[in-house]
Write a structure and sequence with these properties.
The structure holds two protein chains of two kinds. Chain A has nine helices and eleven strands. By secondary structure, chain A is of the alpha+beta class. The longest helix of chain A is centred in the first third of the chain and has 17 residues. The radius of gyration of chain A is 42 Å and the shape is elongated. The model of chain B has no long low-confidence stretch (mean pLDDT about 85). In chain B, strands 1-2 form a two-stranded antiparallel sheet. The radius of gyration of chain B is 19 Å and the shape is globular. By secondary structure, chain B is mainly α. The chains are: A alpha+beta, B mainly alpha.
C-alpha cells in the first residue's frame, strides 16, 4: 500500500481542490524527471507525487478515497519511460545544439569535440591513435645478440624492429609512433612488441647469466685438460682442472648476456662426467682391479 | 507505430495530437508510407501533458521543450567529452 496521498502532497484532508493542484505543481516542477535529467532519485519521488495527485486531483476520485472506497495503491502508476531516457541518445530527432553551437568556433579541444558533420554526424574528436600490440618470437641466441627483424602487418606493410642485445623473454619493445594513426590529426600511437624467446638446446638463461651443462670424458675429469665450450658468441677453450667431478661449476667471465650498460653477465658451465658410449673391456678390467677407497653414497645410508 | 496507437500510448486524443503536430511539438518520422511514431515521441507527448498539468500554457510549452532539448544536447556532448578524456591513454612508461 502506498503512502497517504495527503502526506505526500503535504496538504490537509480538508484542503480545497485548488490547493491540492497548487501543491502538486510546486512539487512536480521540482521533481519531474525530464526537468531533472541527471537526478535519479527525482523519478521515484515524482512517481509518488503524481500517484497522489491522480487520486486527489480529481474531486470525484478524491471523494471516493475519502469514503474508503478506493485505497491509495489504486493510484499507482505503471512504469513510465520518460523523455530523458531517449532524448540525449545519438540520433534523437529532437536533438538541439543551440546550447553549445557557439563553442564550435573556439580554437581548442572543445571545438573539436563539438564540431559536427551535419546534425547527426559523430562528434569530431582529435586524439592520439591507440597502441598496436604485436608478438615476435625470437631464437634464443638472436635475443641475446640482438639484431633487426621485420614484422609483416595484416595490411601488408612492414614494421622494422631493432632487437637490442640482451633482450629477454616477455620484454615489450615500444616503437614510438608506429601504432594506429591518430584521429582528427592526433599523433599516432605506439607499437608494442612483446618478445617471446624460444628455448635453446644447450643454454638456459638466468637474468644476465647463461647456464649450460658440459659433458666431459672420464680422462678429462680425472686428469684435467683443455676442452671446447659453446658460448652465445661461439666456442671458447676452457681448462678443466684435474679431478673435476660431475656437478662442478666453472665460470666463464663475461660470456653471458650483454647488459644495457655495456657489461656482460657470465656463463656457468656445469660438468657432467660421461662414461664412454660403448662398454670398454679394458676399462672394465682396470676398474675391477682398482679398489675404490670410498663411495659418496655412504653419506646417504641410514 | 501508427497515429491511433500512439494516441493510446501517449494518452491523448486525436484533436490534441493534431494540435501538437501542427505546433511542431511532436515531429514523428514521415516517409512515403505515412507517419511513424516511436517511443521517443510517446515520451515527449507524456512530457508535454505533464507540463500542461503543471500549469504551463501553450506559449510556455515550446520554450520548455526547447530548453530541455538543449539540455540533452549538452548532456550528450558532456558525456562524449568525458568518455574521450577517459579513453586518453596514460603517458606511456619507458620500456
Amino acid at each position: 500500500m502506498a503512502a497517504d496521498p495527503y502526506t505526500v502532497l503535504g496538504v490537509k484532508k480538508d484542503a480545497p481542490q485548488e490547493e491540492v493542484q497548487k501543491a502538486y505543481r510546486r512539487l512536480a516542477k521540482k521533481l519531474h524527471p525530464d526537468l531533472n535529467p541527471g537526478n535519479k532519485q527525482a523519478e521515484e519521488q515524482f512517481k509518488e507525487v503524481s500517484a497522489a495527485y491522480d487520486l486527489l486531483g480529481d474531486a470525484d476520485k478524491r471523494a471516493r478515497y475519502d469514503r474508503g472506497e478506493i485505497d491509495s495503491s489504486g493510484a499507482e502508476r505503471p512504469q513510465q519511460r520518460y523523455y530523458r531516457d531517449f532524448a540525449d541518445s545519438a540520433g534523437s530527432p529532437y536533438a538541439n545544439d543551440a546550447g553549445f553551437a557557439d563553442f564550435a568556433g573556439a580554437d581548442d579541444i572543445l571545438s573539436q569535440i563539438f564540431g559536427r558533420e551535419g546534425r547527426e554526424g559523430r562528434a569530431n574528436i582529435r586524439m592520439r591513435g591507440s597502441d598496436a600490440h604485436y608478438r615476435l618470437e625470437l631464437d634464443f641466441l638472436d635475443a641475446i645478440n640482438g639484431g633487426k627483424r621485420q614484422i609483416t602487418l595484416p595490411d601488408g606493410s612492414v614494421l622494422d624492429v631493432t632487437i637490442p642485445a640482451g633482450t629477454n623473454d616477455g620484454q615489450i619493445l615500444r616503437l614510438r609512433g608506429k601504432g594506429r594513426p591518430g584521429i582528427g590529426g592526433g599523433p599516432p600511437g605506439d607499437a608494442l612488441v612483446e618478445i617471446q624467446v624460444r628455448p635453446h638446446r644447450i643454454f638456459t638463461r638466468k637474468r644476465d647469466d647463461i647456464h649450460a651443462d658440459l659433458p666431459i670424458s672420464l680422462i678429462e675429469a680425472v686428469l684435467g685438460g683443455k676442452v671446447k665450450v659453446p658460448t652465445p658468441t661461439g666456442s671458447v677453450t676452457m681448462t678443466v682442472p684435474k679431478w673435476s667431478n660431475t656437478g662442478t661449476v666453472l665460470r666463464l667471465k663475461g660470456k653471458g648476456v650483454p647488459r644495457a650498460d655495456g657489461t656482460k653477465g657470465d656463463e656457468f658451465v656445469t660438468l657432467k662426467v660421461m662414461l664412454p658410449e660403448k662398454p670398454d673391456p679394458e676399462l672394465e678390467k682396470f676398474v675391477a682391479q682398482w679398489r675404490g677407497a670410498d663411495t659418496s653414497r655412504q653419506a646417504m645410508e641410514a | 507505430m501508427k497515429a491511433h496507437e500512439f494516441a493510446l500510448q501517449a494518452r491523448i486524443n486525436g484533436k490534441k495530437l493534431n494540435a501538437w503536430l501542427e505546433a511542431g511539438w511532436i515531429a514523428p518520422q514521415r516517409n512515403d508510407e505515412g507517419t511513424h511514431y516511436s517511443e521517443i515521441d510517446v515520451a515527449r507527448a507524456r512530457l508535454i501533458a505533464d507540463l500542461k498539468d503543471l500549469g504551463i500554457n501553450d506559449e510556455g510549452v515550446p520554450v520548455v521543450l526547447d530548453l530541455v532539448d538543449q539540455l540533452h544536447g549538452l548532456r550528450r556532448v558532456l558525456r562524449e567529452l568525458l568518455s574521450t578524456i577517459k579513453a586518453q591513454p596514460q603517458e606511456p612508461g619507458r620500456t
